[in-house]
Amino acid sequence: MLRRKKSKYKQALVGNKKYYYYRIYWLDPCGDAGHAEASEVKKLKPAKMITHAFIFDKNKKFVWTFASYDEEAAVFSDRNCLLRSSVYKLEKVLNRSE
Prior knowledge:
Layout: E1 11-14, E2 17-28, H1 38-41, E3 47-58, E4 62-66, E5 68-69, E6 76-77, E7 80-83, E8 87-92
Antiparallel strand pairs: 1-2, 2-3, 2-8, 3-4, 4-7, 5-6
């Protein structure tokens, strides 16, 4: 009898579909509505963010994530949609329970 090899990556099974857990590095645009001198304009930089979440789906334009889900139904919470152009690194998280 063949045994299925356990994935080395953290995952969730929701409605017969596997979703993998990622560490997502992305840039969050920042703004300032106040007055500033010309020398101050370029000092404003986007925030470098890290999100830990399951990736629901991704394409060339967007990455959809969720952090919570219902074990009995395919219902997702704590959802985000990130611009793919703002994501600079996707890192699949290893399963530490091995």
